[in-house]
Amino acid sequence: MTISELIWGAVGFLLTVMILSYLIGDNVFFKLAASIFIGVTAGYLAVLLIKEILWPYLVQPIITGPWQTRLWMGIPIILIILLILSQFSSLKGLGSIPLAYLAGLSAAIAVGGAVFGTLLPQSRAVIDAFDRGNWSSPSIPAWRILLNALVMLIGTLSTLSFFYFGRKWKSDPDADPTQRPFIFHILGKIGQVFIGITLGAVFAGVFSSALIALIGRISFVSRFITQFFGGN
Amino acid sequence: MKKTLSIIFAVSTGVIVLAGYFFKDQLNPILVIIIDWGVLLLAVLGLIGLAYLLKSHVLKLFHREKGAFFSIIVLISFFIIFITGLAASMQNPFFRQLILNVQIPVEASLMGILAVTLLLSSFRLIRIRGWNLMSIGFLVSVILSLLLNLDYFQSDPGTLGRELIAFWRSLPFVGARGILLGMALGGLVIGLRILLTLDRPYSEE
Amino acid sequence: MNWVSAGWIVIGFSVLLLVVLAIVFKRSLRYQSRRVREIEAMVDSQVVSVERGMNRHIILGDQLWSWLYPGLGLHPLSTLPNLLNPEIAADGRLTISTSDGSLAVFARQIVNRSYQDGYSPFFENRGVTTTLPGSSPLAFTAGLLPEIGKHSQGMLLFLGQYGPESALWAEALRGQDRFLVAAAGTLEAQAALFSQVRNLILGEMVFMLPKNAANSASLLTEDILRILLMLGLVLGAILKLVGVL
Amino acid sequence: MAVLICPECGAENAPGDESCWACKTSLEGVDAVDVSQQEDRVEDGLDFVTPSDDDLPALLNALKADGDIADISEGGEEKMAGDSPGSESEKRPDVDESGDDIPEWLRRIRQRAQEEKDSVGEITQKISAAQDSLAEDRSGSHHENYAAWLESLRIEAQQNPEKADMEGNESKDEDVTFSDKKEPEWLRKIRREEGKTSDELGSEVLSSEDLKGDSLLQWLVDIETGKAKPESLLEAEEIESESIDMEMENKPRLIEGQDSGVTREIPVDKEAPQGYRLEVSREEQLQADQLSATIVDETAARPARETKIRRGKWIFRVGVAVVLIFILSLSLFSKFEFDLTGDFVKPQQTAIIAWIEQLPQQASILIVFDYHAGFEYEMSLKAEPILQELMDSVSEIFVLSTTETGVLLSQDLLDGINGIEGIKLTHMGFIPASNYAAFSLLADANSVWQLAYAPEAVETLPQRDLDGVIVLSDTFEGSRIWIEQHQSRFNQVPLNLIVSAQAGPMLLPYYESGQVNSIISGWTDTRMIEKGRNEEKPIAFIWQAYRAGVLMMIILIVLGLLFVSNPIGDENTGGAR
């Protein structure tokens, strides 16, 4: 173990133990490690934003670029100035313009992505599952393909129904205001099961990821201790 | 004036970007510029956010509030990394080690705590959610997903067991597809609401 | 009809529907959306927390723009003015936290605006605290855990975009007399919180807030699109099955 | 909404709760109370909660509105007389009753306050009391500072005893009397509303000497008699003045004649004035007390409630943590290699191997690093075998990071790959938003013309086509962004995902619909890939520990089911309601 490995290993070991000490409750060691982490993360982010984005793509073009390029940079510079000025209480309204820019940009990307990337392809996939051409697959029997397609259709419809916003129509004065219209209510009940199953699978995944991270830490700690006390 | 300008900025940016999906080749260079400006704005916003963080710790220190000691630690860590980072390049091995040897242990350990938390919460699942269709589906799904991940259930190809396992494995993505479609609908409507200025979270009013 | 044309038809129809309904709903008409217990719990939790003189904490997540539920990052900002009612925030025990610089900046602006419009500037600085405990999701968690564990929280409300680390925030408050309401977040967060939080506002349900004319129109638009999509799927499946498509 | 109101502490509980979330009292036999009489109003709960006029802060603002003292001292009486007494205070009850402008939650607070005077919260009581006073106060002028106002009256009275006497004579029919017949307007209005005259008050009238306790009126009288200084309010004002924005400084100050932006302590004549005597009824004192408490509460120091963590819960939590760590450690130390017997290889796993095998020589690929440091262990274990396989056919790799640490993690990961030295690596830097990155990058790749003198783009892709994209992501959302943009703009290039276990389940529909070429997600996937490569790396040992942890989770879930009817600890607060 070299000196460098020893130092970095010790840092990692101490921070791991300090953070894991939170398991017995909030304590000064956890706070200390958390404070170091917060400071390091913030410092690194500041460096990253400056060196990787602002310097090469904002400052350098202004300093070294031809005047036409500088002209191009006029709009972002104005937006940035507005953003900075909006931090002063008397000028806080100015911040709405750059945010509007970001909001418009993000909304448009989201709309395009949602329609072209999910809505249409996923809808088509539900329909394509009923394609009779798939039934001749040698590996999967036709009945299972049809069953899968039906389950897929029912699952999709019922999940969509669960999120239906409207309430039961008010012809009945005693109608429960928490209930969806009848058909959506019934489908929504089925949808609950599918949503539960999906969330359960995601939960298992989240736990797996967290568990692997913990295993990684335990593995690191044991390796460090072994090496520190003369092992390899 | 500010309101009008905000709306003009939001709508014009949105329309150009949205049109980019249709007139790909024609609008690409403009789209790249628009996105670049957005990235620059995000970077500045990130720095302003960091200023908020530092300000809160400086104030804590200044007012000698409880926990001011930890604010000192935050500020010292920040400035050490900031100065080192400005002096060294991003590819510098020492700088890389400095960051990663703090971030990886802390973040991974927090994930480890999350694992324990999830264990505890799984114990309380039914107590919190009660017995209903969704919680039953959740419960069964968690157990089966975990068990299947462990490879305990094996069966030969072509058998009913194999078919059942395959069927079960496909079930989570049935609900996932429904959720995805719902999300896409929600995203479409909310996005359009902003583009049509029916919703102006950025606005003064 | 190619892929792109179909997409534009969907977008165009949605725009039309949204505009028409927004105009209709401006004339005091409202879409009768159903009541959701979790959303009511969110309102109740504020009242009871104020009554009990307990701290309240709103977490706005870690992204200004959520891709999962587009607008979700901005969404809490829209909802925020409603959460900042003077009567609710007057006792100085409301804290708003985020790990995103842009969210922090704009949340602060909304807080200032609310108080400027509402009443005394005194509360602008005393009533609501905006904090940024950390600049990444897990740095935020590391900074937040000691803070929320320190004082008894009457209400902890998660809004916006956040990950499964939210289970740690919820766990930090276990055992305290508090209301915990979580809205949306990532799907990983929803799964992690499913066994932690009874008042979990799942998925799109978060868009039921706030209920104003524009939102009413968008809810109905989404419901109409939902029905059309469902019908389209059924019809498409039948046509595919019989070989027409 | 129906709720169960705890008979012990009055807290609201959700229907179905067995015990009160606040005091743990059993709720058996408690009938649900529908607290929302008008069902539809519930919808307005949060929606139309606007800074309405009838709230406490508005009251406080009204009380604190600058510049009104001068009105009182100089023309306040006329102004008050000129105002229609019921102009606002008469309208307000109508608004309240109709509920049109009142959010549901506020109406409920008020309703509960009316029905259960003792059970409402302290703040609600104060709000109600303050609102009553506000209704009164709105018909008249807004007093910023009672102490200052009273002091100015006293100074004025001393300077113009004749005028004071004259005013006193003019208001013979008024209810409360100082010895010189001058009385505070707010007190007069309270009595006017009560419909009582000083004569009717009879024995209820107290002299200042009779007043006991820490009441506003006692304090006022003390000021009058020079026994006390108006410290508390002045302190409050001093705090406020520090925090007032510059723009607010343009507003009239508290007391005419004072410097803008500075709140001075009002000079108090230490000598007790002669002949002043304040007489108030008990109700008046009560109302004044409430108002006083409200105002003082505004700036009062707020002791934080201590966190109560039960010992049983703590032991359980620590116990689970210790057992888990012990089991995992044992599994890791035992070095027992578990041979994976399963052959259930998923098509989404094999697809990536097929893609690598079909790659042309001198291929160029884009790798997106979209994961955080916390997932480094998992992601590097998954990505390493794949990247190692790629080394045979790839000649150029473009590396883009969309998380902060991605820049460093990418270097760390790629440095550990054998043969990376011969590959041309192009670091494209960091983009703070992956949606922007995906959109822009994929847009740039298709450009057919360029803007003249346009600044260098934040990131650029090669002019020639890529042979594939690999996204390393720890979240579903991070992956989905690339899938959607890829589908809509760049769908000829195969997209491969190597994602954390938590992101996997939601991504399967995209594989099934053909939008994604391959997905490596779960731990089993990684194990299968490694097995396929006939390389036994640490995964075999980790696998054993992983199984132990997962088994513990399953056991705890089952135990939780067994103990479901025998709750321990304070789990009923787990969902808060």
Polypeptide structure, described:
The complex is a heterotetramer of chains A (232), B (205), C (245) and D (577). Chain A contains seven helices and no strands. Helices cover 75% and strands 0% of the residues of chain A. With 232 residues, chain A is mostly helical. The termini of chain A are close together. Chain A is extended. In chain A, helix 1 packs across helix 7. Chain B has a domain of 139 residues. In chain B, helix 1 crosses helix 2 and helix 2 packs across helix 3. The longest helix of chain B is centred in the first third of the chain and has 39 residues. Chain B is extended. By secondary structure, chain C is α/β, with parallel strands linked by helices. Chain C is built from ten helices and six strands; from the N terminus they run ααβααβααβαβαβαβα. Chain D is built from 21 helices and nine strands. Chain D has a six-stranded parallel sheet with strand order 6-5-4-7-8-9, with helices on both faces. With 577 residues, chain D is of the alpha/beta class. Chains in contact: A-B, A-C, A-D, B-C, B-D, C-D. At the A-B interface, helix 1, helix 2, helix 4, helix 5 and helix 6 of A face helix 1, helix 2, helix 3, helix 4 and helix 6 of B.
